[in-house]
Amino acid sequence: MARELAPVAGVVLDAAQVVPGERVLDVACGTGNAALAAVARGAHATAVDGAEGLVALARERAREARRRGGAPRRGRRRPAGR
Q: What is the pLDDT of residues 35-50, one digit of tens each?
């Protein structure tokens, strides 16, 4: 499902006029589509979700992006709702 929704992240970021250096908060991030797309545009993204499994997938996708040179920076890890 994340792959089908990936193009939506670009549309949302375009509408929000996200630019390099800007801060983006991706609430209910799921597998991280919007946060990863924001980072690819040079923004600083924070992604949160109450579903631990989805956050784990988002984190793994961020690691893969770093390996490919997309370089999202790992932030502090906090459980949702705290």
A: 999 999 999 999 999 9
The owner of tokens 């459980």 is: 79
Question: What single-letter DSSP state applies at residue 20?
Answer: T
Q: Is residue 52 part of a domain?
A: yes
The CATH number for 31's domain is 3.40.50.150
Which residue(s) pair with 26 in the sheet?
Answer: 47
Is the residue at 82 inside a domain? no
CB burial string 21-48: b at 16+ within 10 A, e below: eeebebeebbbbbbbbbbbbbebbbebb
d(CA 10, CA 31): 15
- Using CA atoms, how far residue 18 sits from 13, 41, 55, 56, in Å, is 6, 8, 22, 25
